[in-house]
UniProtKB/TrEMBL annotation:
Domain of life: Bacteria
Alphabetized Pfam families for the sequence: FGGY_C, FGGY_N
All residue ranges annotated as the Carbohydrate kinase FGGY C-terminal domain in the record: 275-472
UniProt key word Amino-acid biosynthesis: no
The keyword Repeat belongs to this UniProt entry's keyword annotation: no
Organism: Microcella pacifica
GO biological process: D-xylose metabolic process
Family to which the UniProt record says this protein belongs: Belongs to the FGGY kinase family.
Protein's UniProt name: ATPase
InterPro entries reported for this sequence: ATPase_NBD, FGGY_C, FGGY_Carb_Kinase, FGGY_N
Amino acid sequence: MTAASAIAEGRAVLGIELGSTRIKACLVGDDPNAVIATGSHEWENQLVDGVWTYSLESVESGLQSAYAALVADAQSRHGVAPTAFAALGVSAMMHGYLAFDDAGELLVPFRTWRNTSTGAAAAELTDLFGVNIPQRWSIAHLHQAVLDGEAHVGRVHHLTTLAGYVHERLTGERVLGVGDASGMFPLDAEGSGYDPELVARYDAAVAGSALTGSIIGMLPAVLPAGHEAGRLTAQGAALLDPSGALQPGAVLCPPEGDAGTGMVATNAVAPRTGNVSAGTSIFAMVVLDRPLARVHPELDIVATPAGAPVAMVHCNNGASELAAWVGTYRRFAEIAGAPIGADEAYSLLFAEALDGETDAGGILAYNQVAGEPVAHLSEGRPLIVRTPDSRVTLANVMRAHLYGVFATLSLGMRVLRDEGVEIDRMYAHGGMFRTAGVAQRFLAAALDAPVGVAESASEGGAWGVAVLAAFTARGGGDLAAFLDDEVFAAADSQPVAADQADVAGFAAYLTHYEAGLDVHRRAIEVL
């Protein structure tokens, strides 16, 4: 079976992920491990009236742009453009606040995961529920609006996530996958739905507020991986492809968050496996084989797409500041008469970082563009800090930037180590791992553990949700077995053990980094 015939006969499977900097579309054929076409659209969040947001108009135009690019790629590579799919899946940035009235109108601009304005609500809900409620969760955003007496609260009819919103536009179904739902409201012990006891507690806590009805009626239905979550409607097909070529009828898997699809993309859905996803944000997911001993503010308890409990360390800030500095070096190359592409720039600069001192020569790089709850930072103030006797070389500066991407994550992962959580396999994915052996090596040093990078790493969650859609099309079942037997059986994750010199150097860096967080806090006050 050729890729061309899979596309022409409607057997191909489409995955779409709305990430923080790119909307990406990924097409797989009869073998879900084989990517046969891709397309993408670059976009960026906007800080509007103090709120990090994306407009719904940019969601729609970005979807169409990414899909059109995928169609063009399929035509170029295989001589045929898709007009139908066997299955389709949508993934997107988890959490945040999308609130609609009973007519389906958005009540306030989308408040993304990046906002850190819900501290009072998150703390109150953590005490009420007895589980950690992070600031970015949907229930924290809703409750903060209740506490603040926002005018729209009385009109809230339903909430969803970005993936849930797009899925509803495509199918008419208001549902979420287990993993994405776990970032809206705490799930029950089986991961099959929202915790009814906590629903009752919340309803009692907000009785007398402007909210009308139970919170349970405002949340999307929860579906595990493998379940059919609707079919592509004519309106949904027209949303993706205004040309009219795309036909309705494809089955859709439950919409998932980027954390869940990242776990699928790295085969980290079984107990004692974990993954790290690095992009605009960076987070680690570790599938638990037992409950944690106590509540930790650094750890979210979420779920795999199949409903297994996961400890998540989520940092709001990942590689954005690193990308900004790489951009300055590219501009220097351009004005020097030797312009280079982004991939080449990253490759050269990452390679240079390998020649840096193991502790980055005393240079500290703080990558916080936005607030960072794990580090207890209310706002972002990106900084490069050094003492007068530090060694300023390009190699040390680049190593400091790369260490800075992983520093806050390492602080959160230390809590898991203190809990005695054991990890058998750790995988990484995201664009910064495309340069072989550099970010992977430094992450291994930050975690003091072997780290593998799957061949599919750069495709990320778009491929992961395509795999979930293929899993649904095949009738579901045991997700971990499907991944092991049919997707990753021949995969080479290229594990890299932690270099002990790097481990010691990163530990020294992190000690100074922690102490220097007071400099960052002072910068928030004065800048």
